[in-house]
Task: inverse folding
């Protein structure tokens, strides 16, 4: 399985970015998908997750109401729409996939992308 994250960049506080994760190498609809992030000097943390058929989504409290995860099983992609960005959202964002049900813990995911950097200036 290969995961390719894209869409990171520099944005001012209050702005928006849209990340995308493209998956290949496996039947996409078998995968639960998630986004995690890691800021400098901090541990990797869960951001958002979506079930295999997309009927269930879940978020970290810190991003709830600002970020939206979705999936396109025809295009094998998982976008993460990030609105009202804050400086504390600055991190490397990673997409992850699990061959089955997954949750909020990083060890529940089998596959990881390379990460994309998001920097939010104040």
Result:
């Amino acid at each position: 399985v290969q995961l390719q994250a894209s869409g990171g960049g520099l944005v001012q506080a209050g702005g928006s970015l849209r990340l995308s994760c493209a998956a290949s190498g496996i039947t996409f609809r078998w995968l639960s998908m998630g986004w995690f992030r890691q800021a400098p000097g901090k541990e990797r943390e869960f951001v958002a997750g979506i079930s295999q058929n997309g009927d269930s989504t879940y978020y970290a409290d810190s991003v709830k109401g600002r970020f939206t995860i979705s999936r396109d099983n025809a295009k094998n992609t998982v976008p993460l729409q990030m609105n009202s960005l804050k400086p504390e959202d600055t991190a490397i964002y990673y997409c992850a996939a699990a061959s089955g049900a997954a949750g909020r813990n990083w060890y529940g995911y089998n596959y990881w992308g390379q990460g994309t950097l998001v920097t939010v200036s104040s």
In short: The CA atoms of residues 59 and 69 lie 9 Å apart. The mean pLDDT is 95. The first strand starts at residue 2 and ends at 6. DSSP finds no helices and eleven strands in the chain.
